Amino acid sequence: MTRQADGNTNTIVKAIADQNAMIVSEFCALKERELQSKIDTQGDIITQLRNQISNDHQTLQFNAAFHALDDKIDAIAAKQPNTVPVQWPNIIAANATPYVGGYYGFGYGQQTGFFN
User: What is the DSSP string of the chain?
Assistant: First the structure.
């Protein structure tokens, strides 16, 4: 009977030891998952910050180029002559060649030719 009791006790002690080992293993796995999650979160934050820094740098470069171009456009615009707004259409078609007694323009006859 003592052997049976000792055997049962050893079986129970071994089962408890196995359970303890399994619990410790599960806690270690849980701790590892939590740490990996924190590492992943930190990696995501670092990536976002790097992207933001890159975006800010590109924006600064773009703004510098844009302002330089804007200054050049302003300088060119300042050199342009003044303009006067007009209402369209304000153009009248008229013959600008003066009529001189039967001759137009370069003295060539309209009604009479050279060879008449």
Answer: -HHHHHHHHHHHHHHHHHHHHHHHHHHHHHHHHHHHHHHHHHHHHHHHHHHHHHHHHHHHHHHHHHHHHHHHHHHHHHHSPP----PSP-------SPEETTEETTTEESSS-TT-
Which residues contact residue 112 at a Cβ distance below 8 angstroms, ignoring those fewer than 6 apart?
A: 102
Residue 102 in contact with residue 111, Cβ under 8 Å? yes
**Per-residue pLDDT reduced to its tens digit, 98-115:** 665 555 555 555 555 455
**Which residues are bridge partners to 109 per DSSP?**
103
63-80 pLDDT, tens digit per residue, is 999 999 999 999 999 999
The model's pTM is 0.45
**CB–CB of 102/112 below 8 Å?**
yes
More confidently predicted of 6 and 64: 64
Backbone phi, then psi, for 104, in 5-degree steps? -115, 140
